[in-house]
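Consortium newsletter contribution from the modelling node. Members have asked for a concrete example of what our holo predictions look like. Here is one, prepared for the T5A complex that several groups have been discussing at recent meetings.
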Amino acid sequence: MRGKFITFEGPEGSGKTTQARRLLARLEKDGYSVLYAREPGGTPTGEAIREILQYDKAGEPICRETEVLLFAASRAQLVRHVILPALESGRQVVCDRFADSTTAYQGFGRNFPVEQMLAINEFAINDANPDLTLLLDVEVSLGFERLTRRHAATASTWDRIEREERAFHEQVRRGYLELARRWPERFRVVDAGRDMDVVEQEIWGHVRRLLG
Ligand code: T5A
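And here is the predicted structure:
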């Protein structure tokens, strides 16, 4: 039987990676075979694209159109080389960001026509549509407080998209909530401003209902 495809989405610092890893641990403890992937990246080609997108590795400004296509290219590779083979072999797949990120960030954030973003996503993902999308919703200011603490603790630097102005990130958040309204059967909006354990518990409830 084909596995289930679960994606985590949300604004910066909403706790996607934390919760995706916690979910992975819970599923494995319950005996599921699970694949974890992240975007952009997850394949050698995707990781090379990630370096360009996150840290300007090509050494020149990236135009908006190129940005969209690079995210889509990373995704196309991940879907065909990693996600679809895992799902078809019956594994569950947990992905930290997926196509909705392009609709939210490039569509709503950068003001590209959303329908155009959806068409590009469709081309990139083939039939790898998520069964469940957990939208970790958090106020932009709280997400950035968390990232500020993390950057200070790990001496890491702000990446290209994190450096975008506040209005951009507010647009992204609004875009995500709009997508959740558009596809209520697939999206679950989780208030990610709460304690990590409370958020984890709610997510676990959604996933258990999906897996039966
Ligand atoms: N992007 C990506 C696009 O523009 N278009 C696309 O199509 C795609 C796929 C990727 C960037 O690319 C953009 C979006 C992004 O800007 P990334 O480095 O992969 O960037 O990072 P993000 O996915 O953005 O992840 P973040 O770094 O924003 O963080 P997460 O994963 O949301 O949060 P997490 O779990 O790392 O937590 C952040 C900090 O908060 C703490 C954690 O311990 C950590 O220190 N935390 C909490 N603290 C208190 N309470 C809670 N409930 C907490 N949950 C986590």
